[in-house]
Amino acid sequence: MEPINGYPNTILSENDTDKSLEALKKFNAKNSGAFIFGKNDMQERKLFVSHLLDILKSSLDGESTSESEYVVESLSALVVMSRDHMSMNGRFLNRETWKILTVIAGLLDKNGKAMTVIETSKILFTLASKCLCNIMFISKDSQGYCCDDELIKGILQRLKSLDPKDESNDTEVEFLTLRLLFLVSVLNVQARTKIIENHEGSRVLLDYLNSKLTSSKRVVKPTPCIRASISPAHAKSCCEILRTLFNLNLKYRHEESQVKEERITIEFEDLTSVCRKLYLVQAGDDKVLTEKLHGDAGNCLYTVPRSCLLDDTIIPLIDKYDPDDVFSYNGEDIPQWEERDLSAVLNILKEVELKIHNKSLTTESLQPVLSLLSHISRTSRYVRKYCKNYVIPPRKDFEHRPEVGPEFRNKLIKLFTHANTEVKAAAADFVFVLCREKVERLVKYTGYGNAAGLLASRGLLAGGQGDTVYSDCDSDSDTEEYLENAEKINPITGHIPPNIPNPMEGMSEEQKEYLAVQLANQISKLSSDDIIKPVCIDPDTGNLVPFQQKVHNMQLPEEKDSDEDID
């Protein structure tokens, strides 16, 4: 693609509106989809941006309406130029430019106050919002402007003016409104507090998201895991809402002590219920968008503090079939545990299984889902029991290593030694939670070799239990197969090793001693050259420490003086 060119600076400087309008139309027709800028035309680009801002400022200062074709074409050209951080840098990215665009977008009035009545046309709002979004990405100063209380109020006011159920809505207006709020929440930490406390933004977004779900339609052939469908446009809006809620709720995830108000607790409970429903929804026939929707719902669910993650919201009791409720399911194949509906949990497990099968083992793809499963399994014993039965059912095959085989459990345990440290830690933590964070149980299912990485990071190499307190009603009785083979199982590999001939059979004692000395010398040489570092377990911390350090710190008992004076 050729770089953007043909800046009509000469024509714009003549102040002839008709000629300038035609020149802008040609520029936009040629460059509307372009993103590449030239290297030697910096001054032309900056001059062009200056002309465009002068036109927009004049439209606000004049008595005529700002919805003229001239203003629309100028805004369209500014959208193109706002993709370039070089030409928009410096004096152009100031508070005055920010004010011009927020006023044209209908978010603020000329006095900097939030608009209570939406008067701006859709085209002006769309173009001005695109400019604002681009500027937020490239300018740190504009990220500071995001904290303006009136701007936040104006964006939320625009959102309230839209009907979330109306399919005839201009989806671009809705999407850009939500995108603006998302960018404000992600780029400015102080703005998040204002959205939550000054304007109850979380409640506004939750209500909007709930209204979107009410427009869902029952699929033709519902299954326990997919019961309803929403349009792709609505799904994209839901994703933006979920991402914004994720930003707003992050502080509660890390500091659960802040969840004191009853209002916040209720919002989290509502959010949990909504996220569960979203896992039972598909975005039309778009599988990629459906996966993205489920992923954003999972990320949002991860921010819910454990104190607010109730069983009745994430895994409700199975009710009678309601034909008026698109999320109600009429079938006996509902995944359940003690009469609780675990359809959403099964959906999450299947997504993990599919990602592992497709070798989508990146941090962005797999780690968040595994962390979510650990989070809800720590909270709910029903979820933990169901996941344990699904992921690591009682072992019956001891001829093969735990990580070898086609089953889900085998592939998950194999991730314990994956090169991606985030994925490796998330997979090990999930299985550790299913074992109620008991080292003995984990080693039984995975082998000490696979579990060593996790245990070393937790200081549990010598045994013990993790920090989470679990209910005492969980049972993990050994199968008959395990009891029969327990003494034959190699605890390091987790399987019964095949019979291997003894390599030292037939050797004399002198030959064995010679080989042992050779081995000791080789280990000593590797250690002195810092190729390997022998370690041992510190009994106080449970962590690995260098053996040399351990010997150095060891205190020998003092010898008593045997020479006593004889009287």
Lay out the secondary structure.
Blueprint: H1 9-12, H2 17-31, H3 42-61, H4 69-81, H5 95-104, H6 122-138, H7 140-145, H8 149-160, H9 171-187, H10 189-197, H11 201-214, E1 217-218, E2 228-230, H12 232-254, H13 262-278, E3 281-283, H14 287-302, H15 311-314, E4 336-337, E5 340-341, H16 343-357, H17 363-379, H18 381-391, H19 408-414, H20 421-434, H21 439-446, H22 448-458, H23 480-485, H24 509-528, E6 535-537, E7 544-546, H25 547-553
Helix pairs in contact: 2-4, 3-4, 3-5, 4-6, 5-6, 6-9, 8-9, 9-10, 9-12, 11-12, 11-13, 12-14, 13-14, 14-17, 16-17, 17-18, 17-20, 21-22
Description:
There is one protein chain. The chain has 567 residues and is mostly helical. Among the domains are: 200-316 and 323-329, no CATH class; 335-467, no CATH class; 515-546. Helix content is 55%, strand content 3%. The protein has helices at 9-12, 17-31, 42-61, 69-81, 95-104, 122-138, 140-145, 149-160, 171-187, 189-197, 201-214, 232-254, 262-278, 287-302, 311-314, 343-357, 363-379, 381-391, 408-414, 421-434, 439-446, 448-458, 480-485, 509-528, 547-553, and strands at 217-218, 228-230, 281-283, 336-337, 340-341, 535-537, 544-546. The chain has a 3-stranded mixed beta sheet with strand order 1-2-3. A hairpin with a 6-residue loop joins strand 6 and strand 7 (544-546). Helix 12 (232-254) packs parallel to helix 14. The longest helix has 23 residues, at 232-254. The chain is globular and about 105 Å long.
